[in-house]
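Checklist before submission:
- one chain only
- standard amino acids only
- sequence pasted in full

Submission:
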Amino acid sequence: MAQSWSQLTVRTSPANIDVLANFLMERGAPGVVLKKHGLDAFFAAPLAGVSLRRDLGRFVAALARLSPRPQKTRLHWKVIKQENWEHSWKRFIKPRRVGKSFWVTPPWLEPPKFRRRRVITIEPGMAFGTGTHATTRGCMEYLESVADRFAGKRFSALDVGTGSGILTIALALLGAAEIVAIDNDPVAIQVARENLRANGVGREVRLSGARLSAIRRRFDLVVANLTAETIVELAGDLEKKVAAKKFLILSGIVHQKENAVTRRLAGSFRVLERKRSREWVTLLLQRK
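Returned file contents:
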């Protein structure tokens, strides 16, 4: 008997999209598609039952109470048949230009032909980072900028919280000679390893679940797409990993918390550039 699926369509404020996506993935959604004013999430029909709907209602109500201004989130459920499942979410995943150097594409699509762009193939899955999120795009654009500063010279890089491995793959394609990538999530390590292999860059990378504090060397470039709270918590270790006069890229920072991050790092770094996309800020810093 063919399995049916439940599709949840959420219309909400852009500020709520990421936190709702995380909640739904944690509750078992194997596919979540982010949109400009909401998202679509998919569940095997038995999972989309009374318990999930109740918990989702409570979560949405809590978001509304925490918001400084009135917001309305609309939820709509529908059942889709097995034969429509792939079409229902894969049709939203398209090859995307990121920065001046990259096409990011899922493995089932051919990227458009464009000689000057490198192709990164990423399987949308359980680890964060498919090139569509503002924080990932901001990091990739600054990776390009820093690679240009090295002008063909060898440089080393550390990717903290690698997730899907997309930033590590970008670093390899941009010419980083030595790359260390770490993540404390075993699922992310597995997904990153598969993505590195699919993009032919696994040999250039030391991928592990090591703690940041356990890394004993310094790098020409460190990138950390985390959260503002985690960055502040790890600030001391991040400082120690960046060589003198070299570069640190930070993202996952909601704009209201940017000052907390820059104040914490002001003694060791100066801000060279910042990008803001909706509520997200990405920073390019240089070690003093």
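Reviewer check: Residues 5-90 form a domain with the Alpha-Beta Plaits fold (CATH 3.30.70.120).
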